[in-house]
Task: inverse folding
């Protein structure tokens, strides 16, 4: 049931309205002035405000404008015993949904309340639809940073060609979202998008899953099974975690990509399949080819169009938008009162390093929403270690060491520690660590040897 806030400096009027609305099944809170009302609104999720126009300290119109500025769009019904055409026009221009003259009949109040709550539902539905449309247009990729805008531009260009696409990104950055955006923006959007996680299967099971098998091909193969390459015919096959693809199966995959045909396990017939391959990994495939862990010819076959998803720490300006998206979605699903982020909360979120990227942010917001009891999410609602980030530490700041050695030695220590930190944040992938540090990969390898880190 809707939660209504009644604001009036006349205690008797608050009592009368509270009883009237309570008898209709509404949840009602009261406040003697706008300042007390703002405190209630910061704690509770309010659906409608009934406010007197003339109050000491702050008028109803000033209160309405402050709520719009600090909290957002909430329907207002304004009451006054001093009605004029001018005040009525001012109220409606400021955003009030209705304007009633005291004394009011009960039927008149209830009709205005129902009309305002209908407006509130329509407002919420429209806002949710706009958010869903915005997310849908970008394939679910949320952000306005230059890095995300470039990624979306690259996705749009890559979607128009048939070439294989290789997506690089740390764990939790949203590689599958990019793969889906590619598929739905391209000519194959009406056909199947088939996903296989290469790290989720043992070698023999992955071969059967991808290529299919004939009846009797191995123990337990009691009937023929179509492989995912066959299922995806005409559409897109997304090979997630391609860096984990078994070396022994890579020649068979390479042949299927080159010739668009393959054989099922235990079969002799050639099966044709027109699929577009999109692969993703968090690993440095170039380095894996150098060590023999990944076939060079398969790498170049996949590495036609390359899309790199930036980690969350490299697009901190997107964090408020992402956090608010996850917060409102979680609040809607869990039916929780929280609907906004306090400025201090945004600051904490932007200061944290997010080693788990967008997936970690999503989990943090879900947990915070679950335990929050107020309309605005505060820093105290954030779980550790996100909520423990010092407020006076700027993103990327490092601790200054004690002056216990000459400057060159101190610089070496700091350089060594920064390299270690970069390798930890990138899961040991040297190419990504070098990019994070702003140096070339060969320079990073030189420094690794210099500091005896390899």
Result:
């Amino acid at each position: 049931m809707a939660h209504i806030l009644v604001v009036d400096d006349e205690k008797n009027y608050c009592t009368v309205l509270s009883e009237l609305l309570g008898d209709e099944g509404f949840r009602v809170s009261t406040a003697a002035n706008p300042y007390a009302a703002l405190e209630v609104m910061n704690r509770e999720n309010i659906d409608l405000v009934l406010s007197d126009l003339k109050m000491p300290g702050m008028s109803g119109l000033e209160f309405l404008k402050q709520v719009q500025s600090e909290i957002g769009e909430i329907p207002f019904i304004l009451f006054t015993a001093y009605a004029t055409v001018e005040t009525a026009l001012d109220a409606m221009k400021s955003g009030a949904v209705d304007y009633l003259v005291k004394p009011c009949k009960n039927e008149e109040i209830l009709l205005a309340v129902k009309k305002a709550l209908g407006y509130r539902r329509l407002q919420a539905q429209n806002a949710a639809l706009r958010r869903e449309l915005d997310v849908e247009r970008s394939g679910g990729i949320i952000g306005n940073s230059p890095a995300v805008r470039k990624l979306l531009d690259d996705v749009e260009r890559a979607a128009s060609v048939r070439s294989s696409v290789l997506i690089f990104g740390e764990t939790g950055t949203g590689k599958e979202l990019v793969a889906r955006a590619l598929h739905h923006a391209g000519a194959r959007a009406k056909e199947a998008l088939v996903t296989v996680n290469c790290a989720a299967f043992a070698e023999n099971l992955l071969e059967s899953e991808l290529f299919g098998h004939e009846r009797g091909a191995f123990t337990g193969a009691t009937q023929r099974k179509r492989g995912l390459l066959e299922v995806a015919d005409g559409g897109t096959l997304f090979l997630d975690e391609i860096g984990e693809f078994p070396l022994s199966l890579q020649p068979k995959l390479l042949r299927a990509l080159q010739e668009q045909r393959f054989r099922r396990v235990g079969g002799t017939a050639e099966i044709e399949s027109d699929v577009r391959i999109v692969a993703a990994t968090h690993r440095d495939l170039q380095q894996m080819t150098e060590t023999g862990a990944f076939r060079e010819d398969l790498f170049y076959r996949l590495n036609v169009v390359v899309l790199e998803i930036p980690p969350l720490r490299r697009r901190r300006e997107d964090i408020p938008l992402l956090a608010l998206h996850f917060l409102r979605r979680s609040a809607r699903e869990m039916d929780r009162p929280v609907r906004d982020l306090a400025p201090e909360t945004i600051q904490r979120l932007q200061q944290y390093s997010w080693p788990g990227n967008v997936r970690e942010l999503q989990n943090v917001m879900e947990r915070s929403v679950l335990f929050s009891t107020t309309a605005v999410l505060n820093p105290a609602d954030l779980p550790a270690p996100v909520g423990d980030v010092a407020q006076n530490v700027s993103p990327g700041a490092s601790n200054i060491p004690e002056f216990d050695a000459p400057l060159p030695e101190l610089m070496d220590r700091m350089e060594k520690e920064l390299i270690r930190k970069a390798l930890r944040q990138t899961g040991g992938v040297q190419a990504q660590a070098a990019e994070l540090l702003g140096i070339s990969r060969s320079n990073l390898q030189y420094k690794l040897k210099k500091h005896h880190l390899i």
